[in-house]
Specification:
The protein has 460 residues and is an alpha/beta fold. It is 36% helix and 17% strand. The strands form five sheets. It has a seven-stranded mixed β-sheet, with helices on both faces. Strands 1-2-3-17 form a four-stranded mixed β-sheet. α8 runs parallel beside α9 and α13 packs across α14. Bound molecules: pyridoxal-5'-phosphate.
Length: 460
């Protein structure tokens, strides 16, 4: 091993504590100090192993240390082309652009890469502004999360308010643009009053009211997470998205799908394909880089794209290594039909958790599409009183037992199971055993056999 790397990994506890003093974490729930990962598993500094059902911000699609991606990166490093100025052309960037166009529905043929999800969301906003001159208003969904760069944060309700209190982003309000919002299709707890025959459609219909009466001037864009993630794993329905599409067309707003968490994870390349509704602009991030930092937008034909006059330029806007890792990952997903595995294992987990509801009536709802799984806990009373404390405790218990689940960012009563897409049914059985034991320990008040002091971990 390189002597410096060896030195870093063999620091004394005192030296580690000293180094830690210099770090600002910035968000999320702090977790164990991880030193190694392989497949869907990680190891902490004390040698404890975990199945990682967060796949670290849901981003490691093929797990940790995929040997083929590592080899592709290594081969390419030999060319000393880890990063090339955006204004230069590279073959991996061209190849990946074509590949991303191919995995999108027909008619989406132009790609712009950037460094992360927040900047990609802002790139989509810029495309909307370019194509709708004079229109400045953006509309997002209730409970939305699109990132913490200032533009993305303005769209995100969760960055400014969660769990009943004002959080991080509310410190930056003077620099955030005001965003109007319309109801998400949170059918378990409908965000609009009254009873409705088609509650999802009633939520979508509120977009029309917002367009007509809730914004200043014409709308530039509407941004939707087809399956909301930080909000607590809330899927749209085809009817909801179709209505949103129609209202956008009627008012001339561009429809942006934030597919940063849905790409491939739902067992189809895009949620647009899953629901049969197309946006005008796709935004991809997280897993798209094959484990390296990458995000992008893909826009439909007929839209004006970015020109060369500094509309969208980043020093690391063309990371060749990320392009190579991404291209290799897509290749492996296609070759090994990882999307079929994602659907199969996801459906299996969904069905197994569903079958636990007789024993655990506190499971109020299982929301699963592919390996995008959310489980909402509520007391089985008339009001379905949310159980955030117990859900956090179940998660802590599971960490003690060797499995890291995610938690809903906005709703702590939602537990997330979103491992790497290579998770097998056998892995799923292990996950489900720990899940059941942890529920028993917390909800039926038995304690775990072996406690470990690891803090509860993970991100929204
Ligand atoms: C749906 C969604 N959009 C945007 C973002 C922001 O991406 P990034 O953290 O890469 O800026 C996230 C991150 O969690 C996300 O979940």
């Amino acid at each position: 091993m390189d002597p410096l790397i060896e030195k870093i990994y063999s620091m004394t506890p005192e030296e580690r504590a000293e180094c830690k003093r210099h770090v600002m974490l910035g968000g999320g729930t702090p977790g164990p100090m991880l030193v190694r990962g392989a497949g869907i598993r990680v190891e902490d500094i004390d040698g404890k192993h975990y199945i990682d059902c967060t796949s670290q911000s849901w981003a490691m699609y093929l797990g940790f240390c995929n040997p083929e991606i590592a080899a592709a990166i290594h081969d390419h490093e030999g060319r000393y082309l880890n990063r090339v100025h955006q204004a230069f052309h590279t073959l991996p960037r061209h190849w990946l652009s074509r590949k991303l166009s191919e995995i999108c529905p027909p008619g989406f043929t132009r790609v712009s890469f950037t460094v992360g999800g927040g900047p990609a969301i802002e790139a989509a906003m810029k495309i909307a502004l370019l194509n709708r001159p004079g229109a400045h208003a953006f509309i997002s969904q209730y409970d939305s999360y699109h990132g913490t760069t200032l533009g993305a944060m303005g769209l995100s309700w969760h960055s400014t308010k969660a769990n009943g209190s004002y959080v991080g982003g509310s410190h930056f309000l003077p620099l955030l643009h005001d965003t109007a919002r319309f109801p998400n299709p949170y059918l378990l707890r409908l965000p609009i009053p009254g009873k409705h025959d088609q509650p999802d459609l009633a939520c979508a219909e509120m977009l029309r009211v917002t367009m007509e009466r809730g914004i200043n001037g014409p709308p530039a864009g509407v941004i939707v997470e087809p399956i909301q993630a930080s909000a607590g794993q809330i899927p749209a329905t085809t009817a909801y998205l179709q209505r949103v599409r129609e209202i956008c067309d009627e008012f001339g707003a561009l429809l942006i799908f934030d597919e940063i968490q849905t790409l491939a994870r739902i067992g189809r390349w895009t949620a647009a394909e899953h629901f049969g509704v197309n946006p005008d602009i796709f935004v991809f991030g997280k897993g798209v880089g094959g484990g390296l930092p990458l995000a992008c937008i893909v826009i439909r034909d007929g839209l004006e794209g970015f020109g060369a006059d500094v509309q969208e330029l980043h020093t690391f806007g063309s990371s060749t290594l990320s392009h190579v890792a991404s291209a290799k990952m897509i290749d492996i997903i296609e070759r090994n039909d990882i999307l079929a595995n994602t659907r199969d294992v996801g459906d299996y987990i969904g069905a197994q958790v569903e079958s636990m509801r007789d024993e655990f009536p506190e499971i109020a709802e299982v929301r699963q599409i592919g390996l995008h799984v959310g489980i909402e806990f509520a007391w089985p009373d008339d009001d379905l009183t949310p159980m955030p404390g117990e859900t956090v405790a179940i998660r802590k218990e599971a960490i003690d037992r060797g499995c890291i689940f995610g938690l809903g960012g906005v709703r702590k009563q939602v537990l997330k199971i979103k491992p790497a897409l290579i998770c097998t049914r056998q892995d799923a059985d292990e996950i489900l055993d720990i899940f059941r034991d942890s529920m028993k320990a917390v909800l039926r008040k038995k304690t775990a056999p072996a406690k470990n002091e690891m803090a509860a971990a993970g991100s929204g």
